[in-house]
User: Fold this.
Amino acid sequence: MHEELFLIGRIIVGLYYLYNAANHLIVATEPLTQYAQHKGVPAPRLAVIVSGILLLIAGLSFLLGVYPGLGVLSLVLFFLPVTFKMHQFWAAQDQQQRIIEMVNFTKNLALMGSALMFLMIERWPYSLIPRWWPW
Assistant:
């Protein structure tokens, strides 16, 4: 039963990151680019696309159960710059904006922390990689 619950969780998390990848790459590329530009991100469109690709890699990795280390690395590469550049709650002048940025900042840290915990699981149940596969 634990393996099935892990699979359900993996599907939910994988779809969450795939949904956000689609937002970056297809649905909301322009608004996200404008927001990144507003936050002072250099090459904002490229940053949105690269971040979307990192989310896509992580989402597919978790959903399919393949190369979870690569999925975790993709999320760390996504969350570190995004969290500290886009959600600078300490710099927000407006109290309501400060709260919103702090919520997003701490949410991103928690998501990154939970992704790092996946590294402890050596073989993911119901992975598309066969059990005999050496990696």
In short: The first helix runs from residue 2 to 27. The chain has one domain: 2-120. The helical segments are 2-27, 29-38, 44-64, 68-86, 95-117.
